[in-house]
Amino acid sequence: MKFPWPSVSSLGEPQVLARPLDGSALAARKKSELCDRVEALKERGVVPGLGTILVGADPASEIYVAAKHRDCREIGLHSLDIRLPADATQGEVEAAVAELNLNPLCTAFIVQLPLPDHLDEAAVLQAMDPEKDADGLHPYNLGLLVADINGVSDAPQPCTPKGIIELLRDSGVELRGARVCVVGRGLTTGRPLGLMLGQRTVGATAILCHTGTRALSEELRAADVIIAAAGVPNLIGVKDVRPGAAVVDVGVSRCGGKIAGDVAPGVETVAGWLSPNPGGVGPMTRVMLLENVVRQAEKIL
User: Fold this and answer.
1) How far apart are CA 78 and CA 57, in angstroms?
2) How far is residue 96's CA from residue 175's CA, in Å, rounded to a whole number?
3) Within its chain, how far is the Cα of 93 from the centroid?
4) Which string of b and e fits 119-131 if b means at least 16 CB within 10 Å?
């Protein structure tokens, strides 16, 4: 793929730029591996299936859900797509959850977040069967993650944090003993990522920050790895990055009708590694979701 940063300085001189954390390439390799695992399951009479529940017609959510179903077709999974109107009641959403809990064609499923404001998101997640939680966000599975100091649990793990760690490792970024500054405290990335980085199988020192952190720039400059997941455009600038640090841009915001990340232009001139946005973390999140579905199917045998 074509990466968004140039290869020469404004003076036309060669410039050393960050190595790309290419999530698209790694996700493609992982999809190939998952195809083999799905074929092995089919030979034993099991076809994994991913379910999705989308409430409303948010354009970004519709695009993301459609991409997940394309991914399913690519690797040979069933897919079940439940759509509800934006004014769906709490009872109607929880009834859709109950339907997928009981559907034998559905190995695991997700409720696309965020939900409309009138719905109780926590109650919807709690209504899911933890064994069918493809996103790893059910309170029971998050509790197992808190207890899993050694990193050996077979419970589904949150997809974005899992994808970030695999992307960094595959790219040669050393995490054991590294100081990792995570900016963002959201349920899908920041909070679970801090737990996963601290597991003995990873061995990083995670510093969890957010937009209210005092002296945030100082915390960032002290980090070997920065993971920006605050959803604030251009939050991480050149002055915030220690030369040679790895920078992962997870942020997604709308700016003037365009999608913007948390990392400002120019960071590629000081960072050692940088994830493009899009093309970095997004493909890894999606392939980790597929892997969670396949792993849940493998556990059945």
Assistant:
1) 23
2) 40
3) 24
4) bebeebbebbbbb
CA distance 299 to 202: 24
- Give bridge partners of residue 5 from the DSSP assignment: none
What does the block give as tokens for 38? 């799905």
- CA torsion sign, 143 to 149 to 153 to 157? positive
Q: List, in order, residues 6 or more apart from 64 with CB less than 8 Å away.
A: 112
Nearest to 142 by CA among 97, 301, 133: 133
Element (H, E) at 225: strand 225-228
The set of catalytic residues is 68, 112, 135
Look at residues 107, 161, 147, 158 and name the one whose alpha carbon lies nearest to residue 131.
107
Structural domains of the chain in order of their starting residue, each with its CATH number = 46-132 (3.40.50.10860), 157-282 (3.40.50.720)
Residue 270 near residue 238, CB atoms below 8 Å: yes
Q: Strand 49-55 to strand 78-84: parallel, antiparallel, or no bridges (unpaired)?
A: parallel
What tens-digit pLDDT sequence spans the chain (301 residues)?
Answer: 556 655 545 555 556 799 999 999 999 999 999 999 999 999 999 999 999 999 999 888 998 899 999 999 999 999 999 999 999 999 999 999 999 999 999 999 999 999 999 999 999 999 999 999 999 999 999 999 999 999 999 999 999 999 999 999 999 999 999 999 999 999 999 999 999 999 999 999 999 999 999 999 999 999 999 999 999 999 999 999 999 999 999 998 877 777 789 999 999 999 999 999 888 999 999 999 999 999 999 998 7
Gyration radius from the chain CA atoms: 20
